[in-house]
From TrEMBL:
The keyword Hydrolase does not apply. PANTHER family: DIHYDROLIPOYL DEHYDROGENASE, DISULFIDE OXIDOREDUCTASE. Its cofactor is FAD. This is Dihydrolipoyl dehydrogenase. It comes from Cytobacillus eiseniae. Residues 11-324 form the FAD/NAD(P)-binding domain. Keywords: Disulfide bond, FAD, Flavoprotein, NAD, Oxidoreductase, Redox-active center. The active site is a redox-active disulfide bond. Its EC number is 1.8.1.4. Binds 1 FAD per subunit. It is an enzyme of class 1 (oxidoreductase). PROSITE patterns: PYRIDINE_REDOX_1. It catalyses: N(6)-[(R)-dihydrolipoyl]-L-lysyl-[protein] + NAD(+) = N(6)-[(R)-lipoyl]-L-lysyl-[protein] + NADH + H(+).
Amino acid sequence: MVVGELAYERDLIIIGGGPGGYNAAIRAAQLGQSVTLIEREELGGVCLNIGCIPTKVLTEGAEKLRSTRKAADFGIETNSIEFNLAKLQNYKLNTILQLREGVTALCKANKVELIKGSAFFLSEDRLGVESGDHYEVYRFKQAIIATGSSPKIPKGLKVDHVQIVDSWSITKLSAIPEKLFVLGSDYIALEMAMAFSVFGSAVTILLDGEDFPFDQSINMELMRLMKKNKIKIIKNVSISEAYVEQNTVSIYFGNEKMTGTHLFISLGHSPNIENLGIDRIGIKRTNRDFIEVNQQCRTSIPTIYAIGDVTEGPHLASKAIKQGKTAAEAIAGLSSEVDLRFLPIIAQTTPPIASVGLTEQEAIKHGYEVDIGQFPLSANGFAGLRGEKEGFIKVITDKKTSLFLGMHILGYGAIELITSGILSLEMAARDEDLLFPAYPHPSVNECIAEAFEAIKKQAIHIPPMMKREKSNV
């Protein structure tokens, strides 16, 4: 078929079958829409196949290895502990396959039409779809762009996916790096640095700035934990060149040269929009080259929406999922909108990190006079009996109104605990709203209550001296 011939008619076409795309497809189908989902690779997108899930299999493997090494404290004795990366890789592939089959089954159960191919806009209401030598044209009433992003690689660096790797290929390594350099400061850089440190790599983090992107208290504790775990950190690094020679990676920055066995680059992602033909039809971009959307994810062309990594904001599956559902609901005529103010940021590190709302620095910049409550996990009985004493919960409130502004957690259970902070921020809670309930005992949940009690110097499990010191911070 050539352009100009009869086009197949469709109601809603979604380009991209990642978390945003398939959630949008299923939500639209729930609302009575006839949906066609086009994916050029595998259903589930980058997140399921080469991104979120593979990296989390590695971090979970590292956590199980770490906890197994501590099992003797609980009377579980083993003569030796060995780590087999090949078995973990096999488990990863099986997990991906099972999840992908689940997504496929859900789409089919919701009568979502699945088409494999590369889609691009021919006009404001027409798409071309290529799959090998096969080419077809579709006319649509509405469309959603959910094509995701690709790892951003600085000029002068070339990823060979063997010794110089990005976030898509680090999870495919067949051997543990002897000496791993990690360039970046985002959550993926942290996750992989800590995981491979547990696996046995000598790890050096090359920060692309001065610090990690979290609240200052978490950043300080991260620096301490890195030092404790013998992970080196070099700040403000901009690599000018890196190349592989005789199984060694040589890295140059400034007047410095370092050598290792592997370099992992994690410096964010660029939107996958170059081959979509969006400029041809006049879809507006932001000054950072993302697709411009409103709160319903509608682009400058009213019948075309965009979600996920092709839009401004954090490159997170949670953002894409929320946007996908919102776009589907807006297309169905509902008054749904996206508000990402309280989007949580997490890292499946050891221990994990979770953050939502304003950091202390941000709250001060916004003009708040802040109250800070911080409670160490080392003072919590349940964390203690589990042997998980590293970290803390930090909460921030407005001194004048007691309005809750942010929660930042480093430690065991952080990612599950942060939901309390998300819901509280969404409901504009004040400190009394989190002080009033009874918390389960024994549990790490009690740290939330004691963090808020610390603001008022009422925390039971913080010694008076510590209370005075924290009040002077």
